[in-house]
């Protein structure tokens, strides 16, 4: 039986969630459970989650839980506290995964020296694929830790972000303290810095597809500049609460 639990934080994700959940119904083998953690959506997010959960195979336990405090770190920790699988996978509501996701996670974490993994994120929308930004995000997985934490890079540190669908063993996640709930952004990078103590971080040579909604709103050049600016400042130790003002929520 699958031991992979999938946690999806949501806040007003009606435009994206249905497609993501329908893709999860195709998982073979299925996940052990899929948990949507809502932070107080004011659109049809909850109704869409419940409606699509009816399509899941009996082997997959599904539930919608409500988190009294908003924030991706807070909601993901809250969702993880409900999981029962040996492995937990954090999935954004606007990201599509391959149908062999569970097998990939099991295979990757079967190597005991690997503590955490993620995928190559291909950013795309209805009309275009953002090849340039997707390539930069792929390279950033390697060059960011090499520049800012070279001693950890050679121990296996790779910098993963949420749209890369981070997964790890549940016991390692909690041993590291989970996501830092004080961080409004960069909670995923912070987790990487903590979980490297448990083992290498693996970038799986497979693709997940993430929404380009932020780039579509900003434009490619502005998005690239913002991503670089935030990444560099975070890398040299600037407070993530300051950096959040450059990274507004876009639905």
UniProtKB/TrEMBL annotation:
Domain Glycosyltransferase 2-like: start-end pairs: 5-134
Subcellular compartments: Cell membrane
Keywords: Cell membrane, Glycosyltransferase, Membrane, Transferase
Coiled-coil segments on the chain, per record: none
CDD domains in the record: GT_2_like_a
Function: Catalyzes the glycosylation of 4,4'-diaponeurosporenoate, i.e. the esterification of glucose at the C1'' position with the carboxyl group of 4,4'-diaponeurosporenic acid, to form glycosyl-4,4'-diaponeurosporenoate. This is a step in the biosynthesis of staphyloxanthin, an orange pigment present in most staphylococci strains.
Protein name: 4,4'-diaponeurosporenoate glycosyltransferase
Organism: Anabaena subtropica FACHB-260
Similarity field: Belongs to the glycosyltransferase 2 family. CrtQ subfamily.
SUPFAM superfamilies tied to this protein: Nucleotide-diphospho-sugar transferases (SSF53448)
Pathway: Carotenoid biosynthesis; staphyloxanthin biosynthesis; staphyloxanthin from farnesyl diphosphate: step 4/5
A Pfam entry, by short name: Glycos_transf_2
């Amino acid at each position: 039986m699958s031991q992979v639990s999938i946690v999806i934080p949501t806040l007003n994700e009606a435009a994206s969630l249905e497609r993501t959940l329908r893709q999860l119904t195709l998982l073979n083998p299925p996940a052990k459970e899929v948990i949507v953690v809502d932070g107080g959506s004011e659109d049809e997010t909850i109704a869409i989650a419940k409606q699509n959960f009816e399509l899941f195979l009996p082997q997959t336990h599904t539930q919608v839980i409500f988190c009294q405090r908003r924030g991706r770190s807070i909601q993901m920790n809250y969702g993880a506290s409900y999981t029962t699988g040996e492995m937990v996978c954090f999935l954004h509501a606007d990201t599509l995964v391959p149908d062999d996701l569970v097998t990939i996670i099991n295979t990757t974490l079967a190597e005991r020296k690997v503590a955490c993994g993620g995928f190559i994120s291909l950013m795309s929308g209805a009309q275009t694929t953002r090849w340039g930004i997707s390539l930069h995000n792929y390279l950033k997985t390697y060059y960011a830790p090499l520049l800012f934490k070279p001693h950890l890079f050679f121990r296996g540190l790779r910098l993963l972000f949420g749209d890369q669908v981070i997964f790890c063993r549940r016991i390692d996640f909690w041993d590291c303290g989970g996501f830092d709930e004080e961080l409004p952004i960069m909670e995923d990078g912070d987790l990487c810095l903590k979980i490297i103590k448990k083992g290498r971080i693996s970038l799986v040579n497979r693709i997940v597809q993430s929404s380009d909604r932020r780039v579509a709103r900003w434009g490619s050049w502005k998005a690239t500049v913002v991503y670089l600016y935030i990444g560099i400042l975070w890398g040299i130790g600037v407070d993530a609460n300051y950096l959040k003002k450059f990274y507004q929520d876009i639905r």
